[in-house]
Structures are given as structure tokens and as C-alpha cells.
Design goal:
The protein is of the alpha+beta class. It is 17% helix and 29% strand. Among the domains are: 6-69, Structural Genomics Hypothetical 15.5 Kd Protein In mrcA-pckA Intergenic Region, Chain A (Roll); 173-273, Pseudouridine synthase (2-Layer Sandwich). The two termini are 39 Å apart.
Length: 309
């Protein structure tokens, strides 16, 4: 794994002007959390014009914030010998098909049984980033969601891919089966998401303007009497974004144990699948595109609802 420091520049977009530095920095794909942002700021790795910034600094529009990611430190991650469905691999990236039920990186209750552990058994070349338990991870999909994920093998690839996610140039399409039939055949849902105040497992939209901007474009592909096959295109990629947006639209995803209510057992598992991913190769600039049909554990369910591939 690489352990060289990374230095990159992030430009503050117009809509983020006036936000606290730690809050805005935490939205960047390469950092991905406010706690990590605070750590970098406290250690003096975040500057503007050579001046070290404080977490409370209000970022101005179009400012060029320089961020240094320090060399990674060894972790206690252990390789896990388990099947890995690789769609593409080269010296810079690995594109995998993640099965439902597999956690992407170590978290509470999943210390050594994640996609990261499986990747470490496959290769020793993963970007280290912060030297935490997320080597190579540029973006995530929920444990119970299946589908396509790109992983960075080098820090330069990680930085380039993270910039694409931040600039919203990555193509991401999900298929889902939801309860009922949406009133509109297509539309856009735009909210700000925050963790639910009383249930830490859930997220919810807020009317206060606080939280992370979440934008989902949806289109009904097919309708049945009691459910619909919906295609969701992500403009942003927030935790539980599609699950929250579909629920708040009045059409929760079938099989969703958290948001599904009476529909949480209406499918073999969460009926959500990351079926398309497109991005610019971080080194060659080639346009990469990957597509998958319904996975085996959902295909029979989809067929019974009239939603063949």
C-alpha cells in the first residue's frame, strides 16, 4: 500500500459559502466524515494561502482550500479469503460486484469480515488514505445493497476518483422495487439529510437547510398492481439516500428492514441494486462504464413481479 502524503486542492462551491470548514470538508468524498475533517484541521493539514485554518472558519465561495492527507499508518486489518467478483482490474483501480449482506469497510460489529478484508487477501496494492480501516474505499453502498463499486489501488487514483465524486461527474444508476406506484413517472427529489434525532440507525430529510444535500433523479421503469420497478440516478451519494427519498415519497423499498414498515418482509432482502457505474479512468482518462442485471438473489423475485431484465 502507498504511504506517501497526498496534497490536493478543493474549490469551495457557491452553495457552500459560509459553512464551517469542518462541516464542508467532511462532505468531500476523499474525507467523507466531519470527524476526519476535524482531525486534519487540528493537525494543521488544511490551509488557505499558506495559512492554517480553524474548524470554525467560514469558507468563502470559490476559495482554493489546500488539504494534505498524511502518510498512512499500519492498521490491524486482516486479509479474508473469500470470493471476490471482479468486473475490472488494472494497476490503478478494481471494480467489483459487491453482494448484499457484505459490509464495505470495518465498522461496529464488523471488524474483519468486510469487503476491505477480502480485497486485502486479493492484493496488497490499495490506497492508504488516512491509514484507517478503509484502504481503497472511495465510495460505499449499504451492507444490504448489491452492486458495482470502484476501489482505488493507488493514492493518486483515490484522489482523482474522489474529485469526480465531489464534482458529481460519476454516473451512478440503481434499480429498486418500491411499494405502490408513484404519482409521477419521473422526477427529482432534493432534500438535506441528517441522522434521525431519536433513531441513530435512520436518516431523515430536514426543512432547516442543515445536513447534507441529497439529490435523486427517479424514473418508473415498470408498474405492477402493488409495486413499481424504479430507476434512480444519483447526483449525490449520501448514506441511505435512495431509501430515505423513496420512503418520504410514500413508496418505501420492498424488503427494507429500517424504512420499509409493513413492506420490510415483502422481498427476500432490500430490493436495491447498484446496476450502473461510469467514471473517467484516473490515469488514462478513458471513460469506463459497467453494467449489471438483477443479481441472482433478486432475479426470481423481480420476475414474479413482472420485472425481468
Amino acid at each position: 500500500m502507498e504511504s506517501k502524503p497526498n496534497i490536493f486542492t478543493a474549490i469551495v462551491p457557491e452553495q457552500s459559502a459560509g459553512e464551517r470548514l469542518d462541516r464542508w470538508l467532511g462532505t468531500l468524498a476523499i474525507i467523507a466524515s466531519r470527524s476526519r475533517a476535524s482531525l486534519l484541521i487540528d493537525q494543521g493539514y488544511v490551509t488557505l494561502g499558506g495559512r492554517k485554518l480553524k474548524a470554525s472558519f467560514k469558507v468563502p465561495a470559490h476559495a482554493a482550500i489546500q488539504i494534505e492527507i498524511p502518510p498512512g499508518e499500519p492498521t490491524d486489518l486482516r486479509p479474508l479469503d473469500s470470493p471476490l467478483d471482479i468486473l475490472h482490474e488494472d494497476q490503478d483501480v478494481i471494480v467489483v460486484n459487491k453482494p448484499a449482506g457484505l459490509v464495505v469497510h470495518p465498522a461496529a460489529g464488523h471488524a474483519q469480515d468486510t469487503l476491505v478484508n477480502i480485497l486485502l487477501h486479493h492484493t496488497s496494492d490499495l490506497s492508504m488514505g488516512f491509514g484507517e480501516n478503509r484502504p481503497g474505499i472511495v465510495h460505499r453502498i449499504d451492507r444490504d445493497t448489491s452492486g458495482i463499486l470502484v476501489v482505488a489501488k493507488t493514492d493518486s487514483a483515490h484522489r482523482a476518483l474522489a474529485a469526480q465524486f465531489q464534482e458529481k461527474t460519476v454516473h451512478r444508476i440503481y434499480w429498486t422495487v418500491v411499494a405502490g406506484v408513484p404519482a409521477k413517472a419521473s422526477g427529482t427529489i432534493q432534500t438535506h439529510l441528517l441522522r434521525h434525532p431519536s433513531d441513530r440507525k435512520r436518516f431523515a430529510s430536514t426543512k432547516t437547510g442543515k445536513g447534507k444535500l441529497a439529490v435523486t433523479h427517479f424514473k418508473v421503469r415498470k408498474k405492477a398492481s402493488d409495486c413499481s420497478w424504479v430507476e434512480c440516478k444519483l447526483e449525490t451519494g449520501r448514506t441511505h439516500q435512495i431509501r430515505v427519498h423513496m420512503t418520504e415519497l410514500g413508496h418505501p423499498i420492498l424488503g427494507d428492514a429500517i424504512y420499509g414498515g409493513k413492506f420490510k418482509k415483502a422481498a427476500p432482502r432490500l430490493a436495491l441494486h447498484a446496476c450502473e457505474l461510469g467514471f473517467e479512468h484516473p490515469r488514462t482518462g478513458e471513460q469506463m462504464f459497467f453494467q449489471l442485471p438483477w443479481p441472482e438473489d433478486l432475479i426470481e423475485f423481480a420476475k414474479t413481479r413482472g420485472f425481468g431484465t
